[in-house]
Amino acid sequence: MTVKGPRASRPLMFERNRAVLLRPSRWISLLRKLVNAWHVLFLCLAVVLLLIALFRVDVEEGGFLHFILWAWSRGLFVLAVLSWPGWFAFKLGVVSCPCCGESFAEKAGFSFLVEPRCVNCGYDPSTISRRGDF
Ligand SMILES: [Zn+2]
After folding, report:
1. pTM, whole model, 2 decimals?
2. Which of 9, 18, 26, 97 has the smallest CB count inside 10 Å?
3. In this structure, is residue 74 part of a structural domain?
4. From the CA of 86, how far away is ligand 1's center (Å)?
């Protein structure tokens, strides 16, 4: 296994105590789901709006479809308040892996979705386990 980042020259120390890992893992898992859900919901809304424009669906004001689109877009706006700073926290390396202490998400490259496992050590916060551990 190759180790990237500033800890590459130092010996690896993995935190394996589940009691220590539990709380930060829950937060990382929750924040990751929120960030990914926002991007998926935004993409779905964009596709629905494109289809409505493409097929010239008549969206009457005050109708059910109008209300759904209104609620969807306002919900996304409210979710963005939490998920955008969360996305930047992952991408800027503010969110560190509770197992290895390095940045949890890939900083290089531009992906909207946050990976389920730590890019450095493969730790999965949703299962509180690391690849290769028993
Ligand atoms: Zn890690």
Report:
1. 0.80
2. 9
3. yes
4. 18
